[in-house]
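Attaching the record inline, Q. Sequence:
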Amino acid sequence: MQKRLLAAARQLADATANMVDAAKGCASSPNDSEQQKRLRGASEDLRAATNIAASNALKKKLIRRLENAARRTASATTQLINASKNANKSNTNKTSEHQLTQQCQVLSAATVVAKHTSALCNACRLASSKTSNPVAKRHFVQSAKDVANSTANLVKAIKVLDQDFTEENRQRCAEAAKPLTDAVDELTTFASSPEFASMPAKISPEARKAQEPIVSAGKAMIDGACHMVTAAKQLAVNPKDPPIYQLYSNHSKSVSEAIKRLVSSIKDCAPGQRECDESIDKLNRSIRDLDQASLAAISQSLQQRTEKSLRGFQEQMIGSAREIHDLCSKVKDSAKAESENLGHRVTMMASYFGPLSDGAVGAALLIQNSKQQTHILDLTKTVAESALQFMYSCKEG
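Structure, as predicted:
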């Protein structure tokens, strides 16, 4: 999402720059048809870039319209069955007219029942797959079976009633509906228990505050681009009008500033940025500790430590290096496509560099050869510096 927003922002910035150049050219040569054509083309490019920047909002509106259309289609299907009642207007037999009306009502009700019981069975299967409680899982599966079987029996009774619309068949149809009603009531009672009650999604004040820079910058960018396109149209009609050109320049400047704010906000608010900064600070501290130990090794002023043996420090280094190696691919994947995991993984990775540098310094203190001391410290520093560059790359995305 972050990369798509940045790409849209860059495209809008390029379109804005092209529009400014075209407007300047049209202002300097107002009678040049090529300049006017270039201005119109730049205006269309800016409009297209604005639409791309707002595509997410447009997609949401389109989805809502499709959902509403689907609801209207389902409603119209039911109304179509009910509309068959109008056939009784041309029917002179009152007895058959009354029977036809009742049959239409039964078929309409059957359509509604079948539609909703199907959705209810699907919801039971979904709830069964989501819950970790084995008792609840079995209860949802059994409820789906009860609703499905009751619906099937009701449909059979309705078919019989449709073929022979008698009082006896109507009574059987009513009796077949009662098990379905009982199964639905039992499922409703079970699903309404506190264990399965859903909680409405809420955005915390902190989340709203974090969203505000991106939302306000994006809104300012789109509003400014719309005003800019309007001014460009007026400028194309009357390129010699200085006030319109000044208005266009003001809107162009506001769009450029909004784009800069949007790009900056996206980078600052991206997941894992704070954790990356903290990890970078930890790595810098480890590098400084290794530098100081290297200088002490060169001057042969390293003080020996006795809390561990040389083998103990080596095992500490090996264990930390192995954990860092295993986390490298996970951090890379998080930086590329799993930004929600980036903060946690870079924090874990940085936490192993303290023990790694401490083990290197401790091992160097117990090695008598100064060249070997410098060598082990330099190798550890190279690993830390490589990880530091890796952290910067992850932070930039």
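The first helix runs from residue 2 to 28. Confidence is low (pLDDT under 50) at residues 56-92.

More tomorrow.
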